[in-house]
């Protein structure tokens, strides 16, 4: 964490202590928040049944650990954490735990009744899980009432019952009414400010619209649809990324072998219509037996079979890179790093304040508790939360405004010199002078702003730059 993020967390911890002292009934909530501040970001993957959530989890982790069939494990919330050994356990509703057989993929059966299970915890030494833990959730709009309730408890619950700090919401083709309802519930659970903690994924991009063999490139069509969804849902989501899960899973889990690339390359000279026919009735191709063609079609059915043959001529590494690029994996990771990995201390603090405010609202000592929270939020250490709130408002009302991009850069900055456009070796005086100049510029913009949201954002920016100037002047 940066110095400012550390200061923010210390201020939230102090607020938790103040609230617990003032109202002992808040102790469970304040304890859960203080413990959660020091943990990795918990990122839940949410969406309708068959939206592609487990395939997305496997692609992000880089191992095929999440079951994609109708096994019992798809019916419970499962958290994937970083660990030194491969192990899994079921956490029961009474708080006890039971080991779950785990040889790299979760089994079809848990060994205990599903209705007795709160959630499953899986530990494995995956590099991706250094940055965050992933929570795979049962699908919404299920025919079994129990399943959505488990997801709701993990993502929308209060206190220790809630497992998620942020979400990736997976859409199969476009948003439906229950998708929108859930996203709005998530916003309410976060104090009405969902954007920084919500990213959308439009799955099955390789089979979009007319599919792999249609007249138009389905991934290009999915990209256009994702952009439209992001604009339409900008009140609930920070963005929408098109994603071909099966292609991404193949690239990230090391499925592509040299013989696969060589076989696919042998099809490069065939017309598309002949390659499409191979999917219906495999036949021998020069250098490939019918059985080899059948295996190749099964592994690269659809989009890679039509569009990946040229890339395969460069070997397994080239084909893997093509799959990662075309599937949206690189774009998704960039969005996760920008929105989540780089900002998780801020997201955890914002979530903690939302939970504390909700708990204070329901307490008999409400007036005093809300006063303690408000006092904490005007502290200099808490100003990143003010910046986040201003960015979220502009992201909805003025997404293309210069202030929106400037707040985004401020929230993601890891170094004041680069934020202010200075050389890496600029001295303290130069940093302070540049910050003062930026504060003056943004204050002038606040005075001329055409509406309250832009004026507030400019004032927030000005205060942030003044705080930077003070730090470098001392």
Overview features:
single chain, 474 residues, 21 helices, 10% strand
Structure report:
With 474 residues, this protein is an alpha/beta fold. 53% of the residues lie in helices and 10% in strands. A 9-stranded mixed β-sheet has the order 4-3-5-2-6-1-7-8-9, sandwiched between helices. α15 runs antiparallel to α16 (366-377). The radius of gyration is 25 Å and the shape is globular.
- Enumerate the spans where pLDDT stays under 50 for 5 or more consecutive residues: none
Please state how the strands of the largest beta sheet are arranged side by side.
4-3-5-2-6-1-7-8-9
* Percent strand: 5-15%
Count, helices: 21
Q: What is the rounded Rg?
A: 25 Å
Q: Give the total of beta strands.
A: 9
Measured distance between first and last alpha carbons: 22 Å
Series of secondary-structure elements, N-terminal to C-terminal: HHEHEEEEEHEHEHEHHHHHHHHHHHHHHH
Compact summary:
Helix content is 53%, strand content 10%. It is of the alpha/beta class and 474 residues long.
């Amino acid at each position: 964490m940066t110095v400012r993020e550390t200061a923010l967390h210390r201020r939230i911890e102090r607020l938790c202590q103040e609230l617990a002292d003032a109202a002992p009934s808040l102790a469970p909530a304040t304890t859960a928040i203080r413990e959660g501040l020091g943990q990795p970001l918990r990122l839940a993957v949410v969406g309708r049944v068959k939206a592609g959530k487990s395939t997305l989890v496997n692609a992000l982790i880089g191992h095929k650990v999440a079951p994609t069939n109708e096994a019992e494990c798809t019916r419970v919330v499962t958290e994937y954490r970083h660990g030194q050994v491969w192990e899994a356990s079921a956490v029961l509703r009474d708080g006890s735990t039971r080991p779950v057989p785990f040889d790299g993929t979760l089994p079809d059966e848990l060994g205990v009744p599903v209705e007795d299970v709160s959630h499953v915890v899986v530990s494995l030494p995956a590099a991706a899980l250094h940055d965050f833990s992933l929570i795979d959730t049962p699908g919404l709009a299920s025919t079994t009432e129990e399943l959505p309730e488990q997801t709701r408890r993990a993502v929308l619950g209060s206190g220790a019952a809630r497992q998620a700090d942020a979400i990736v919401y997976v859409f199969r083709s476009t948003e439906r009414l229950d998708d929108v309802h859930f996203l709005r519930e998530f916003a309410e659970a976060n104090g009405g400010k969902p954007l920084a903690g919500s990213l959308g994924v439009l799955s099955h991009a390789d089979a979009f619209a007319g599919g792999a063999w249609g007249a138009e490139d389905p991934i290009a069509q999915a990209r256009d649809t994702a952009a439209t969804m992001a604009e339409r849902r900008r009140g609930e989501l920070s963005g929408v990324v098109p994603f071909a899960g099966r292609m991404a899973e193949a690239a990230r889990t090391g499925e592509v072998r040299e013989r696969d690339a060589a076989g696919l390359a042998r099809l490069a000279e065939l017309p598309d219509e002949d390659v499409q026919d191979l999917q219906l009735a495999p036949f021998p191709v020069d250098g490939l037996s019918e059985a080899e063609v059948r295996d190749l079609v099964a592994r690269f059915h659809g989009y890679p079979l039509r569009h990946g043959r040229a890339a395969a001529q460069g070997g397994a590494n080239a084909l893997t890179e093509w799959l990662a690029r075309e599937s949206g994996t690189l774009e998704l990771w960039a969005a996760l790093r920008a929105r989540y990995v780089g900002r998780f201390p801020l997201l955890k603090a914002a979530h903690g304040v939302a939970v504390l405010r909700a708990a204070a609202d329901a307490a008999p000592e409400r007036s005093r508790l809300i006063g303690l929270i408000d006092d904490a939020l005007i502290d200099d250490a808490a100003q990143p939360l003010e910046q986040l709130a201003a960015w979220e408002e502009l992201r909805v009302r003025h997404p293309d405004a210069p202030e929106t991009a400037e707040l985004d850069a401020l929230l993601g900055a890891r170094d004041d010199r680069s934020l202010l456009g200075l050389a890496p070796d600029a001295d303290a005086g130069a940093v302070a002078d540049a910050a003062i100049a930026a504060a003056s510029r943004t204050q002038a913009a606040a005075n001329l702003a055409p509406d309250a949201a832009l004026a507030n954002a400019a004032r927030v920016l000005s205060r942030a730059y003044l705080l930077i100037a003070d730090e470098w002047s001392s």
